[in-house]
Amino acid sequence: MVISQRATIQDVALLSGLSICTVSRALRNLPNVSEKSQQLVAQAAEKLGYKASSAAARLAGGSTGSVAIVAPTATSWFFAQAVEAAEEVFADSGWDPLLISLRNKPSVRKQLFGDLTALSQRVDGVLLLNVDLDADEIAALHASPLAVVSVGMSHVPWDNVGIDDEQAAWTATGHLLDLGHWDLAVLTGHEMSGTSVCSSRDRLAGFHRALDSHDLTVHPDLVVAAGSTIEGGRRAMTEILANRSLPTAVFAACDEAAFGALMALREHGKSAPRDVSVVGLDDHPMSWFMGLSTVAQPVADQGAFAANLMCERLQDPLVPTEGSRHMLGVKLIERKTTRRKR
Amino acid sequence: MVISQRATIQDVALLSGLSICTVSRALRNLPNVSEKSQQLVAQAAEKLGYKASSAAARLAGGSTGSVAIVAPTATSWFFAQAVEAAEEVFADSGWDPLLISLRNKPSVRKQLFGDLTALSQRVDGVLLLNVDLDADEIAALHASPLAVVSVGMSHVPWDNVGIDDEQAAWTATGHLLDLGHWDLAVLTGHEMSGTSVCSSRDRLAGFHRALDSHDLTVHPDLVVAAGSTIEGGRRAMTEILANRSLPTAVFAACDEAAFGALMALREHGKSAPRDVSVVGLDDHPMSWFMGLSTVAQPVADQGAFAANLMCERLQDPLVPTEGSRHMLGVKLIERKTTRRKR
DNA sequence: CTGAAAGCGCTTACAG
DNA sequence: CTGAAAGCGCTTACAG
C-alpha cells in the first residue's frame, strides 16, 4: 500500500458526504455543526489520516500550526530544561515549536514584540519563559489575537505557571537566618528593565521579607546583580570580597550564580561554609556535587505545564483566557555550603 | 505614518512596473531575469519593506521559510549552546528555526525521518546536531529536496562541521600517556545504533590509536559507555570502581561524563588526580571550577558555522551540495585532575 | 527574457 | 445547521 498524496480537506468532504466548509468548521470545533456531521467528519478524517495543511490554513487566515517558545537566552540550564519540556508537549500535540532566543538583548525583544502582526503571521501562540516585558508590550500582547502563556512571570494578564519566587527566596534566606546568620549578602538576577519578570524581583522581595521579620536590614553594597550565570555570580562575589568586611552568609538567587560565588571564594583562598555560608535556588544537576545547599524547583514541569495550558487554549479558542496562576512547589535541600554561624 | 498592511508581491509588481511572475523570479534569484528587471524589483521590494509570505509560498510549492534544528536532546550543555548559536544565525537571516528534540528516543527519530514528505512540507532545510542516523535515513534525506547540514557527523554525504573527534581523543589520551600512565579506562559516549554519529565512535578510535602507538591495549572491562551526562559518567565510573583493580587514568569522552566520574570517585573516598587521573573533552563552563584537565572544543562556533552553511545553501538552491568538511580546532587544557604517574 | 492563467488547500463572509 | 463562491499571496508550467 502506498499513500502517494496527503489527504486534503476535499478528500474528507468527499468521504463524509459533506461540504468542504462544514468539514472545515467541524475540524476546528466551531459552533453550528450538527452532532452527526461532527462525527462523520471525525471518522472520515481519522480514516484518511487527514492533517490540515498549516500553510493553506495560515494563508486563508486560520491557524498557523506553530507556536513560539521565547526565552531570554537558550543556553542556561534552566531554559534548556524548560524549552525541551515545552518542545515535547507541543510536538506531541501537533504544534510546531519555533524557538526564539532574545539573546539577552533588549533590541531583539523590542523588535520581536514591536511587530505583533509579523509574529501573528507565523504563530498562533507564544510561550514566554521569564521574559522581561515592559507595560506596553504586555498590553499589546494581551490585545493581540495571539494566545499567551508564561512561565515565571507574575503580574501578567494571561495564564502563568511558576514557583512562588518570593516564598522560595524567603525559604532560602530563612535557612540562613535559622543558622544564626544576620549579616547577609544577596546575589540578585538581572536588572530588570521591564515590569513583568518577577522571578528576580520577587526573589529579592522574599529575601527582604525574611530579613524584615527578624528586624534585619542589608547593606546596599551587599545587594549585587549577578544575572543567572556562573560568570555573573563570580563577578558579584568578587565585588563583595573587595569590601572591607565579608558577610557571613550569601543567598544567590540561582544556583549558577552560587557556583560562581563559590569560585570567587576559592580564588580568594576562602571557602563555604568555613568563611561564608552560601545557599542557592534551583537545584542544578551540579549542585549535589558541589554540596550546594539550595531550594529546589521543578523546571521541566513548569515548561511542560505551561505548554499544556497553551495547547488547551489553542484547541478551544472560544474559551476566554482567564489569567490563571499555577504555582509549583519548591523544597529546601540542606547540603554542605551552609552551617551555623559561630 | 502607519503601514496598515504588509506589502504583497502585487505591490512590488506594481511599483516596479513588472509582472508578479517576474518579480517572483527575481526575488528568488532564478535565472531568466534581466539585470535591469532584477534591479527594479530589488529597489521596489526594498522600498516597500517587502517580505514574502511564507504561507503563500509554501502553499504554492515554494519555500517554507523555516528550517529545523534537530538534536538528540536539547537539555545538555553542548546542544543548548549549539542550538542557540544556530538559532541566532537563522533568525538573523530571516529563517524561522523549528526546534526538534529527539529526546534520545529512536522512535521519535524514526517517525521524524520516516516521513520526509511531512518534514519537507514544514521546512526547507534540516540542521542535524550529532544525530545518529542509520544508512536508510541518510540515503533518504540525501535524496529528498531538503537541504541538509550537520554538526559532528562524519561519513555523511552533505556538508558537515565539527572537530576532529578522533584527533581530539588522541590528544586527550596522549596527555595521559605522556604523564606515564599506561593502565587506562575510557568512558565512551552513547552506544550507536546508527551509522553516522561519529563523535562517539571517532573518539573511541582516537583513544585506541593513541594506545596502539605505545603498543598498549585496554582491558574490555575498562571501556564503558557513559553517554554524555553527569549521571552516566557517575554510573560508568562506579562500575569501574567495582573492578578489583583501578586503572591509573581515565579518559572521559565528554566533560559531563568526567564530572560524573569525579563524583563517583569522591563517593568511594577517592579523588583525582591522587588515585586516578581524569581528562575530559569539551571544556564545559564548570570544568575550570572542577579543575578538570580537558580538550576544549568550540561549541557555539560549530552551530553558527553550520547554520551559515545552511543559509548559503538555501539562498542559492542551484549550487549543488558538495558534502564539504569543516574541522574546527581543539586545544588541550591541563588543569588539576591529571598528573604524572608515580 | 517576460507575462496571463491556473491552482496550491484552506477560511471567511454570505446566502440559504 | 449547511454549502457555493471568492480569495488569501504566492509559484509553476505554458505561451509568447
TrEMBL record, chains A, B:
Originating species: Arthrobacter silviterrae
PANTHER family (alphabetical): HTH-TYPE TRANSCRIPTIONAL REGULATOR GALS, LACI-RELATED TRANSCRIPTIONAL REPRESSOR
Keywords assigned by UniProt, alphabetized: DNA-binding, Transcription, Transcription regulation
InterPro entries: HTH_LacI, LacI/GalR-like_sensor, Lambda_DNA-bd_dom_sf, Peripla_BP_I
A Pfam family hit: LacI
Tree of life domain: Bacteria
Domain called HTH lacI-type: residue spans: 7-61
Keyword field contains Transcription: yes
UniProt protein name: LacI family transcriptional regulator
